Every structure is written in structure tokens, then in C-alpha cells.
């Protein structure tokens, strides 16, 4: 079946999946590149197409990320604050189980990257108080740790879909993300 074919018919009939070319109905127009078609059923069981609008593209986001653990390893949480969205800042606080502090820092970075990608951001600048994460993501350090390698690889892969940059900030300048991470891990640890 080609991209231009569209399934029609009654959903309850045995020949529901008939090719449009085999029916006497008019041929549908071929799909354009990157065109999204959503097939839904109306009340009589017929299939029709509805064009879906492209999601709105965010221009530039700034994220403050932090991960923390009580003990190393121990109960862990992440905190992320993303600024630049139309609806105001996005705050994320999540429990991530028993991890060490570097895994928590990478998990916070990955959460910010995933959020930026889902918001269709073009550019993301991240501030982190973890020198290990910042230096590994900038290529200054090589990631050799088996427990961090897959997280590092995933973050690099997500970062390639954005105009991505990352900077180190002192912990005092990352207070809100730190507070969110501490709240997440202490709430779950109790």
C-alpha cells in the first residue's frame, strides 16, 4: 500500500481493509512531505482524514538543573526549572529511586532535554552545578563510567536535536533547582 492509499469502508464488514484503488471512489491526493494525517471514525464507521496543525515552536529556553542524593548512593531526586516558555516557568521535582549523585545530575539534565524537545524548542541553554556533567557534555572530560555512559550518550543524542549549550554555575546560583531536588528526595525518603 502506498502513502497515497487510504482505507475506507464499514468497520464491521469483512472487506473493511480494501485498497482505494480497488474501489470506484475518487483517488485521494498523494501525501506531501511531513504532512500528518490522523484517521478517525465518524458515527457511521467511515474513515476520514483530518489535518493536524504543526505544534508551536518555542524559540529559546533556559534550564537550571540539579540532582541530589541522601548518601552516595541513596534516595535521589531531581529538580529542573525551565524558563522561556509562553506559560511561564516549568518546575519539575521527581524522585528517581536509589542512585548516586552523578546519576541524579544526569537524570536532571535528561529531564530538561526531554522537556525542551517535547516543547519543540530550537535552543536550550542549561545551567548545572555539577562540574562532572558540564565537563563531560562539553567534551572536556571523557565519560568512562559504565553507570553514567548510557545517560551521557542519551543526553548527547537529545542535545543534537537542539541548539544546545551548557554552563557551570555555583550551587548558590542554582538554588531553586536544588530546592526542588531536595524536596523530591526527602518527600519520598520519609
In short:
This protein is of the alpha/beta class and about 190 residues long.
Note the main attributes of this structure.
190 residues, alpha/beta, Nucleotidyltransferase, domain 5, 2 domains, 5-stranded mixed β-sheet, 7 strands, disordered N terminus
Descriptive report:
- The chain folds into two domains: 1-54, no CATH class; 58-189, Nucleotidyltransferase, domain 5 (2-Layer Sandwich).
- Helix content is 29%, strand content 29%.
- It is globular and about 40 Å long.
- The protein has helices spanning 101-118, 131-138, 146-159, 175-189, and strands at residues 37-41, 47-51, 58-69, 74-83, 90-99, 121-128, 163-168.
- Mean pLDDT is 79; it is low at 1-25, 31-37 and 46-53.
- The strands form two sheets. Strands 5-4-3-6-7 form a five-stranded mixed β-sheet, with helices on both faces. It has a two-stranded antiparallel sheet with strand order 1-2.
- It has four helices and seven strands; from the N terminus they run E-E-E-E-E-H-E-H-H-E-H.
- By secondary structure, it is an alpha/beta fold.
Amino acid at each position: 500500500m502506498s502513502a497515497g492509499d487510504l482505507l475506507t469502508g464499514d468497520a464491521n464488514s469483512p472487506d473493511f481493509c480494501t485498497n482505494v484503488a480497488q474501489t470506484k471512489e475518487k483517488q485521494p491526493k498523494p501525501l506531501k512531505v511531513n504532512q500528518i494525517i490522523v484517521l478517525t471514525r465518524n458515527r457511521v464507521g467511515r474513515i476520514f482524514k483530518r489535518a493536524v496543525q504543526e505544534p508551536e515552536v518555542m524559540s529559546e529556553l533556559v534550564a537550571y538543573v540539579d540532582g541530589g542524593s541522601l548518601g552516595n548512593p541513596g534516595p535521589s531526586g531531581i529538580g529542573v526549572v525551565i524558563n522561556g516558555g509562553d506559560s511561564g516557568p516549568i518546575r519539575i521535582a521527581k524522585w528517581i529511586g536509589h542512585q548516586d549523585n552523578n546519576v541524579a545530575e544526569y537524570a536532571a539534565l535528561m529531564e530538561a532535554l526531554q522537556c525542551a524537545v517535547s516543547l519543540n524548542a530550537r535552543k536550550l541553554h542549561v545551567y548545572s552545578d555539577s562540574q562532572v556533567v558540564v565537563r563531560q557534555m562539553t567534551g572536556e572530560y571523557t565519560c568512562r563510567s559504565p553507570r553514567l555512559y548510557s545517560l551521557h550518550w542519551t543526553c548527547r543524542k537529545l542535545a543534537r536535536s537542539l541548539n544546545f549549550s551548557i554552563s557551570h554555575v555555583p550551587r548558590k546560583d542554582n538554588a531553586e533547582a536544588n530546592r526542588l531536588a531536595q524536596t523530591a528526595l526527602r518527600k519520598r525518603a520519609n
